[in-house]
Amino acid sequence: MESQKDSHRIRVLLDEQTIAKRVHELAAQIDADFAGSEDLVAISVLKGSVFFFTDLVRRLQTPLRIDFFQTTSYGSGTTAGEVRIKRDIDLSIRGKDVILVEDIIDTGWTLRTILDLFRFRGARSVKLCALLDKHESREVEVPIDYSGFRIGKEFVVGYGLDFNERYRNLPYIGVVEMAEK
Ligand code: IMP
Ligand code: MG
Predict the structure, then answer these.
(1) Does 106 sit in the ligand 1 pocket, CB within 6 Å?
(2) 112, containing H or E segment
(3) Which residue's CA is the closest to the ligand 1 atom numbered 5?
């Protein structure tokens, strides 16, 4: 099902200023919680979290190292046992405090899988920071330690989030309004 080129109307949901303000608040909260930590590793879940991640970590005062992790899932939606690792992290996280940075939590399967994996690898702690929480779509419980905004079930793009790999570079987050036939 090919989407029409450049034909989507995008309604702004969260503008640049609103996002920036919330990112600063989240960074302050994370700094307060990790004060004194020497072993923090911040991990971006690619590709959707890339802009959120770079904005967030540049605001943090806590010394940290960064790494990247990428998953894929088969089928149209994420389901149990269907999350595959596409790119693993380089760093060892054994004994380290880990903060996982994700764009959006939908069903929860992606983050549930990564959280379990990183705990299995011996991280001292694994915290989750998600810019968007589609709470009503949750199928499996994931504890979000730092949550940017709670949104409804609508499909959103921009600030890293895509629709068929498009719209990631929009500086704001918007709702894709599907054209009526
Ligand atoms: P989950 O495993 O269902 O929680 O899947 C989360 C992933 O689905 C996110 O990392 C996104 O890549 C993708 N996703 C879920 N909802 C949206 C959306 O509204 N816009 C863009 N991507 C989304
Ligand atoms: Mg993602």
Answers:
(1) yes
(2) helix 109-120
(3) 106
pLDDT (average), residues 13-33: 98
Shortest-distance ligand to the CA of residue 112: 1
* 97-105 vs 40-46, strand pairing mode: parallel
Per-residue pLDDT band at 4 (split at 50, 70, 90): very low
Query: In the predicted model, what is the mean pLDDT of residues 77-96?
Result: 88
pTM: predicted TM-score of the whole model, two decimal places: 0.92
C-alpha span between 30 and 41 (Å, rounded): 12
- Selecting among 39, 106, 116, 133, the annotated active-site residue is 106
Residue 39 a catalytic site member: no
In CATH, what is the architecture of 17-73+82-150? 3-Layer(aba) Sandwich (3.40)
CA distance 124 to 92: 12
Domain ranges of the chain: 17-73+82-150
pLDDT digits (tens, 9 = 90+) for 125-161: 999 999 999 999 999 999 999 999 999 999 999 999 9
Distances from the Cα of 163 to the Cα of 32, 57, 112, 113, 132, angstroms: 35, 25, 23, 23, 16
